[in-house]
Design goal:
The protein has ten helices and no strands.
Amino acid sequence: MRVSREQAAENRGKILHTAAQLFREKGFDGIGIADLMKKVGLTHGGFYGHFASKEDLMAQTCAYAVDELLEQGEAAHATTKGSKYKMFIARYLSTEHRDNPGSGCLMAALGIDAARQTPAIKQAFTQSFNRLLNAVMNLLPATKTEAAKRERATLVGAQVIARAVDDPKLSEEILRVVNKNLH
């Protein structure tokens, strides 16, 4: 049975959305195509109508996950008064973000995993990181130097370490200290 272009686009969106969530929760190698497609409610064979390979999906998911994060940020900024940068940092370095990697930042969830992937995945990850970094840098006052703005990328490392330690107090301290130092 053929599907309409609209249905195909909707199915592709579902695959990307679910893959982004599952990759951030389980890592790139933590979910297979069959399980992903089952979770989406589509057949395994239908995957190849949308993506050339799992590697293709992984690369496209990097861009999709950053798009999602940037859209969430824009929506939050539209309803918030005050410093958009401070609001972003507070949200990013929150325990809520720490505890929900599936809906959080691709960089914090998959940074270590991406380092072990193919050059194509590393390239997609790098491009996505640069997009996110530029978006964060655009929230900062123009008076800051380019180098000072780029230093703000340390928040990704803070989230990675906060998720990795098994001591809740230490984890919260890491988030709090980095948050304080980035203001």
